[in-house]
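[Meeting: bench + compute handoff]

Bench side (C.D.) handed over the final construct sequence. Compute side (W.E.) agreed to return the predicted structure before the next meeting so the bench team could plan truncations. Sequence as handed over:
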Amino acid sequence: MFYDVYCQLCRERGLTPSGAAAQIGFNRASVTVWKNTGKAPKQELLLKIAAFFGVTTDYLLTGRAAPQVPLEQQLEGLDFALFGEVRDMTDAQKRDVLKFMKFIKQKEE
């Protein structure tokens, strides 16, 4: 499953699986191992791949996206947690904060 999702993400970006490996910074032989064994990479590399493609590790492993939650709903409580700092942020900046928070959470799992 992981290999198929990885290849699809590469195609969507116009990359070969080996080319994406080079850009992410890991050995392209890993791609062959995933193809031949059906195994997924270890957590550290999985996190790098997820960050590169802008997806969750769950998506990489299952191919299923989590339901989309509206940005405003995602930000509930964020303003309080960040001492009101998000009030003057653009939507793009708020999305970046959310991406970083999700990355940190995935890293801890």
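W.E. noted at the follow-up: The CA atoms of residues 65 and 74 lie 16 Å apart. C.D. will use this when planning the next construct.
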